[in-house]
Design goal:
single chain; TIM Barrel; 12% strand; 8-stranded parallel β-sheet; 292 residues; 11 helices; alpha/beta; globular
Amino acid sequence: MIRDLAEPVVMGVVNVTPDSFSDGGTWLDPGAAIAHGRALVAQGAQILDVGGESTRPGAEPVGEAEELRRVVPVLAGLAGAGARLSIDTSKAAVAAAALDAGATIVNDVTALRGDPRMAALIADRGCTACLMHMLGEPRTMQRDPSYGDVVDDVKAFLSERLADAVAAGIDEDRVWLDPGIGFGKTIDHNLALLARLDEIVALGRPVVVGTSRKSFLGAITGREPDERVAGTIASNVLALARGASVFRVHDVAEARDALLVAAATLRGRWLATTRSTTTSTTSSTTKRSRQS
């Protein structure tokens, strides 16, 4: 279990959907999704976020039975793959089945509002809850979203949802917060949230950022979804500098390397990675001495 979020945590996306905005249908087959998840772990993902219902703008809802059919075999196949498993769902029944299959994180884009049973389930199971801000719901969230001050409004919402989660019996230490980049926000809203993310971090809980391949990056760069790796990395590094802890990405290897270098620079220290079996504590210390 990841307890110390002092270093950036990379959450790899495993979409088991036919209609996600950048990779819909690619990993719909359980075998392909499991192989993809294992590849993301090999690239450095510490968490795999498995989702069976697209939350892209305009997405149609998926029934509980279909969502279960999509995600449970994949989660079972990824148990023991070397990363924590997260279920991206707002349905308590799907979350319960996912936890039974090995997940330890519930990533709920409705912040426990979508299913009245979700908070009690998370409290009872003692798992981690990621609570996200979304204006409206996926089918309508991008229809002229409006705020007084987007950062103040999102912060107030997340503060309220955190308090409600704790009141429902969820351990505060197991709650992560996500400002919901792209979920009912214009480009200017997204940029404001990134620029002032430290105000969300001030709530005192780990902050999750999901900017990967999103449309605001395409609007700025003119790139298609699978060409937005550089834009994703830039947004992640900016978020790290402002205190974000967990980074939900499609392109794990690139994001991981950028975040490790940025974290080492910002914090004036670096940690030897576990990807090399030949680097010992002694040799790591020697390397640091030579480079200082």
